[in-house]
């Protein structure tokens, strides 16, 4: 079968947005190459495999591939005339484009290498990105310029570095899949208009946190685990990759629900995942695929960020299951925090 490529699809998009996506996709090709070379990645004796030996702004152990991936994204975006600035999981503050700060119409936000604790084990990792409008074009973007809810995104996507490298994009008109041809380094268009099944019998959650979960999540998971002996009267399956990109891509291809709810493990943190470069872009893609994305008490795309690295509870996937979980949060007998957290996060966080 002959596939058209990314360029053909970008030609039909708004040119400045297409330019941002083109540069992001180019960075993902370089990251994919480094991931696929594993322990032999790197040049001139400089391996890009293994730990840096330092913690990043999130308080997490940084991998050399985290740093390399961040550099690939920054290098690509610095060349992009439509992007005025960007923010990364790896850096505390946003970067102002050296050449296009006052001319770029868009801002980019990204997690350069999601799931990087998987690298040593050679398990799938990915890159997540989001494109937001620069609301003050002509002025250098400040941190405040990035504080926009996910609903404002003009595009979002991810690259999954798995057995094949896959790029998933949306500019608000549905979901497109591209597969990287490792020989030509071309992104070939492999699926269009992807829709997520509304029903599923598969869920993904880090069950080791069970004792810290809120009541609605306790109920939901215990009912799934009870299977055909419980109120759901059917068996469920559970998955956990520890890489949100891989979890989301599985849901894109065969349905499912992914949960990283707010818990009491570290009460200062309202969730594990970051709003701006993990939850918001994935929520945008989920909605574009006909699925749902919520915190439990509100749509993820309506959460207004307080800070760049803000965390948020995440419940995303097949709409029947997400609707059911929302119902458990609304039920006054189940819910411990609905009134408090209905409108927005009450937390303004400091790092990590
Ligand atoms: P990193 O971006 O720091 O690698 O974190 C990955 C992640 O945020 C997300 O991809 C996973 O769903 C989640 O962490 C896994 O966390 P635990 O398995 O430690 O709960």
TrEMBL record:
Biological process (GO) annotations held by this record are: fructose 1,6-bisphosphate metabolic process; fructose 6-phosphate metabolic process; fructose metabolic process; gluconeogenesis; sucrose biosynthetic process
EC number(s) on record?
A: 3.1.3.11
State if Transmembrane helix is listed as a keyword. no
**What range(s) does the Fructose-1-6-bisphosphatase class 1 C-terminal domain occupy?**
197-328
Q: Which cofactor does it need?
A: Mg(2+)
Which intervals hold domain Fructose-1-6-bisphosphatase class I N-terminal? Answer: 20-191
List residues traversing the bilayer.
none
Sites binding Mg(2+) 1 sit at 89, 111, 113
Task: Give the InterPro entries listed for this entry.
Answer: FBPase_C_dom (IPR044015), FBPase_class-1 (IPR000146), FBPase_N (IPR033391), FBPtase (IPR028343)
* Pfam families according to UniProt: FBPase, FBPase_C
Q: In which pathway does it act?
A: Carbohydrate biosynthesis
Q: Name one GO cellular component term.
A: cytosol
Q: Cofactor note from UniProt? A: Binds 2 magnesium ions per subunit.
| Record's subcellular location | Cytoplasm
Q: Which SUPFAM superfamilies match?
A: Carbohydrate phosphatase
Catalysed reaction(s)?
beta-D-fructose 1,6-bisphosphate + H2O = beta-D-fructose 6-phosphate + phosphate
Q: Which residues bind Mg(2+) 2?
A: 111, 114, 278
- Amino-acid positions noted as binding substrate in the UniProt annotation, renumbered to this chain: 114-117, 206
- What is a single molecular function from GO for this protein? fructose 1,6-bisphosphate 1-phosphatase activity
Under the heading HAMAP family, the entry gives: FBPase_class1 (MF_01855)
> What family classification does the UniProt entry report for this protein?
Belongs to the FBPase class 1 family.
Subunit structure, as described in the record: Homotetramer.
Q: What is this protein called?
A: Fructose-1,6-bisphosphatase class 1
The species is Leptothrix ochracea L12
């Amino acid at each position: 079968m002959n596939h058209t490529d990314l360029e053909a699809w970008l030609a039909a998009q708004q040119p400045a947005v297409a330019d941002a996506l083109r540069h992001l996709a180019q960075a993902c090709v370089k990251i994919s190459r480094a991931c696929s070379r594993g322990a032999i990645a790197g040049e001139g004796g400089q391996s890009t495999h293994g730990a840096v030996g330092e913690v990043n702004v999130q308080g997490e152990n940084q991998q050399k591939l985290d740093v390399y991936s961040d550099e690939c994204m920054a290098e690509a975006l610095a060349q992009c005339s439509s992007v005025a600035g960007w923010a990364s999981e790896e850096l505390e503050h946003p970067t102002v484009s050296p050449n296009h700060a006052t001319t770029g119409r868009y801002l980019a936000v990204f997690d350069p290498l999601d799931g990087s604790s998987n690298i040593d084990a050679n398990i799938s990792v990915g890159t997540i990105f989001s494109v937001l409008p620069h609301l003050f074009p002509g002025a250098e973007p400040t941190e405040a310029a990035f504080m926009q809810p996910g609903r404002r995104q003009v595009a979002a996507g991810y690259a999954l570095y798995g057995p094949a490298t896959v790029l998933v994009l949306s500019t608000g008109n549905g979901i497109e899949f591209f597969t990287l041809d490792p020989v030509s380094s071309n992104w070939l268009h492999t699926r269009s208009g992807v829709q997520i099944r509304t029903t599923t019998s598969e869920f993904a959650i880090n069950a080791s946190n069970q004792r810290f979960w809120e009541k609605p999540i306790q109920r939901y998971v215990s009912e799934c685990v009870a299977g055909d002996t419980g109120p759901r009267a059917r068996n469920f399956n559970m998955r956990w990759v520890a890489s949100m990109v891989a979890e989301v891509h599985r849901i894109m291809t065969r349905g499912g629900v992914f949960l990283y709810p707010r818990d009491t493990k570290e009460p200062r943190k309202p969730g594990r995942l970051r709003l701006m470069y993990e939850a918001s872009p994935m929520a945008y893609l989920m909605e574009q695929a006909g699925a749902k994305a919520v915190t439990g008490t509100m749509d993820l795309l309506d959460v207004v960020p307080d800070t760049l690295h803000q965390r948020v509870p995440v419940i995303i996937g097949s709409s029947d299951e997400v609707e059911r979980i929302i119902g458990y949060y609304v039920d006054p007998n189940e819910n411990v925090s609905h009134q408090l957290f209905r409108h927005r996060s009450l937390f303004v966080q400091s790092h990590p």
